[in-house]
Give the backbone structure.
Amino acid sequence: MENNPLQTTLDSPSVSVNLEELNPAQRQAVTTTEGSLLVIAGAGSGKTRTLVYRVAHLLEQGVAPDKILLLTFTRKASQEMLWRAGNLLNDSCGRVTGGTFHGISNMLLRRYGHYLGFGSTFTIIDRGDAEGIINLLKGSLGLTGRDKQFPTKRVLINILSGSVNKSMAIDDLIYEQYAHLSEHVDDIINLDKHYREFKLNNGLMDYDDLLVNWKRLLAEVPEAQRDIAARYSHIMVDEYQDTNLIQADIVRLLAHGHNNVMVVGDDSQSIYSFRGADFYNIMRFPKVFPDTTIIKLEENYRSSQPILSLTNDIIRNATEKYTKTLFTKIEGDLKPRLFAGRDEREEALFVNRKIAELQNEGVELTNIAVLFRSGFHSYKLELELNSSGVEFEKRGGLKLTESAHMKDVIAFLRLQVNVRDSLSWNRILLQLNKVGPKTAAKITDRVTMADDPLSALAEYPPGKTWKEGMAKLVQLFYDMEKESAPGVLYELIMAYYQPLFEQIYRDDFPKRQKDLDQLKSIISGYEDVQSFVDDTTLDPPDTVEDHGKQTDRMILSTIHSSKGLEWDAVFVMGLAEGRFPHMAAGIGEQMEEERRLLYVAATRARKYLFLTYPRQLMTPDRQFKRVGMSPFLSELRAGLFQRIETRDGQRSSGFDFSASPSRTVPAYPRKKKKQKLSVKDLPQGTRVTHPFFGEGTVKKSGQGRSVDVAFERHGIKTLHLDYAKLSLC
Ligand code: ATP
Ligand code: MG
């Protein structure tokens, strides 16, 4: 199965890992191969590097690759790390398992879930799906209506999920954090019961279930525990500060018997408490594993001294911190710059202008990133970049699969793997003209309860006005039944769905069509539908907005999605009062988390750091309001940054903001001509790039318009040239 956990296949080691490339503390962490190990250290001190070297070292020491488990925060991170470990060994060694907690759990539950009463064909639901179910249940339990003042689906999911992730009873959580909703406690507990039943009856699991059920397998099913614990002799976890209590328990249970577990983290970078992450897990680790070796890394290898001085100062003001102040040997005299724009537009103009200057100085676009608190903070900048022709990729915004039309298409594929997924039935039936929620619910019930759901659908007596639509739908499912190739299924679905799509989204379907095209290109790389459905829910790709197809493009990212990464030049935008910290942050722990968020952002920079904010913001009722700088900036010691202000500010910037930035190098450094590829252009060994799978090498071509490509990060895929969007490297 190619879904989430990644298994890299490499050959036998040929080059030895050079431990001289590590400092003594890092070396100790790499060479301590038995027992429990905690590396606690600040940003850029080489925690991730240490993990990469340790994987390579373990392999070199003869540990079987399939005995190593690397748990990371995103799938991409584990792919990157295993790729780097492979490089250290000159492409050597075998099947190391790497992925997120959710991805590994998915793999294990498909195999061992039967011990807990689950079939192997459960469907994973995302947050939007979960909210949809809650809404359905609210209706059926009579909890809707104005007089009820019952919380919204979003708040309800926050409560239910919070109780799971924080390991707290629902009533305790409500009394502690949602006291104003106390009168609804009984109804919320009842709703939770129905939500659980609904998921069970429909073969659905939400993200929390994946963790809870993995833990249950390990804690409650001795056969499964023995089997799973025996699979992995060496466990490693990156970004441990962002694990929650269930994940910490999973790690404890997994390592039971050998205790060969290494976790690395930085309490100062814990930014996911809203998902139940608890950085005290780091402090508890030595108590859970009493003979833990604790290693602190104090040298920062990423940032220049002026940047490090500022980031040390951001975290100096934190109320609680355990890691030490870092030092660096990387000198530099470029202090971080602080810029206050008159408004958001001027802030955007400044960033755009500076990017041009950096390019003129020789900094590549790929080495530049702009970070912000929330996705919408970059809208003005996106306009500027577009008009200057600067190509960028935006990360952390809306996920490709979150929009309604994408969910529409995926619903058909979800039914292909789990025909009892009533959420998907409901969605598909509602697409039919003249079918309303009541009828859709009735048909869904009938179909999902039947022994043969498709016959039940075919036999359902349709209304006159939607008879024809229903007949087409039934035919589609009969056609799909005979197929298994994801690409072919997609074509069948689109032949049915396209006219409905153009009708349902008649105002903006051409814009939405681009997403469907992207989906087509992604799907064509999958061999089985289950893997595709799992991947798109567990690790949905970001919406690739049409801002350029080049590989040489800069990154625009939410701070949350920038974790663990680094660039030569980093801009942190929107550092205004009310925007950063987030308005709703209040005081206390949430405020502290916002501070850590700024720390994460600023510590991504190697050589250049720009902090910017607008001096006025538009309020929701479209009034302009003057704002000051973020309190986190006003707390910083004088002299740690250099101010630049606009012409009407106290200090002159020397910029002419009215003119567009002039670039002595083009915004598109190496623009390649768009070409339509044919099989002839792609002999074996050709290097190619794909928008989703990245770079790879052609392994086989021939067979009509299909080629087999070995992707570095995703393994071998068979791609059809008509829709795979391949280009030459
Ligand atoms: P973060 O907390 O942001 O995740 P980290 O502690 O994981 O950071 P890394 O990303 O592993 O740090 O390392 C930061 C940078 O420093 C990387 O470019 C890495 O290659 C480099 N680096 C780390 N250790 C060394 C070393 N001993 N010699 C040279 N470069 C190093
Ligand atoms: Mg790291």
